[in-house]
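User:
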Amino acid sequence: MRRLKGYQITLFLVIGGMLGALAVTQFGTLPQSQAFINNSTAPAAEETTPPAKPLNFNDDLIRDLNNAFTTIAENAQASVVTILTDRVVKNQFRNPFGNGSPFERFFGDMFPAPDTEQHLRGQGSGVIVSRDGYILTNNHVVDKADKIQVRLFNGKKVDAKIVGTDRRTDLAVVKVESDGLKPIKLGDSDKLKVGEWVLAIGSPLRENLAHSVSSGIVSAKSRSLQLASVEDFIQTDAAINPGNSGGALVNLYGELVGINTAIVSQSGGFQGIGFAIPINIARWVMDGLIKDGKVTYGYLGITPQPVDENIAKALDLDDISGALVAEVHEDTPAEKAGLKAEDVIIALDGEKIRDDVHLRAVVGTKKPGTKITLTVVRDGKKKDINVTLGEFPEPEELASMSG
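Assistant: Predicted structure:
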């Protein structure tokens, strides 16, 4: 396990009681001098935002809100499953004196070297997305599994097979054969707003805690953890714990808006910072895996970076949204279309680009060969550039590229 500044990213798969973790580079501890603000010494603002109108809570409103939560939880729970995996690892017996030891002359075959098998059992979560048995989950839940079982809401266990996996988004689709499956309704994660209530449903820690429900809000959107090639994570404070990987993030309409995937934590346990893959990305990956068994990604061929206040000021931009083109790679769709370093991409086919993370997600989830129009700011002026996307290279191809 690697740590940086006391924080780690945890993927919510339980394997033999151990938690898999990856170091995170962009999350550091907040210096004490910045952690608190003394309001008594802060200068008075010239203009203040008027206070929000207080809500008039009454018994009917509270009852309706309570009923909404319980109804959504009851309906969504039936679509969430526990995924149980078994991976066989062969361990070769080692000669206690070491191979090639002089003792081999005397003891000969007294110390045989039979292969032994060890079973690594894992647990995660998944979401039923169709009546014919397709289940959406995380790739790291089922990766390298020799056997997969799914435990349904009614307690029934059925064997499952992998339909396809995608490491670039950490998503996978498995399939079961069973009657009476209840698929969840898919929402639109692009319409999800910061501050919106959500429920997280999954199987944390162990099998007998299956279908646990927690609530929270959408804390932020368009987060990057550098875990995958295509990222646009939803951040939530709905409690998520190990074993929740592949579980459902549901809005108050009962719609699936995300697949729970990771947390940032100092301890490995939940500390109010969880992340889910937006359903719009998950749906696109799922469709490709079901139809073709794989996913192909659109490719532009640039190194984008976020626009901060200094960049916005230097390039005379109106705000800090958009993605700065830090580098244009050779012989790529971007170079052929005429994109240049220091261009700022502010829209794609008329859709506003929030930042570099959003740009990667929008481009990545388009098919190779798709023709798009990028709106860029160059030398203080807006310009439309037409680009035909290529296919995202394999990792080894990317490593050999300049830059």
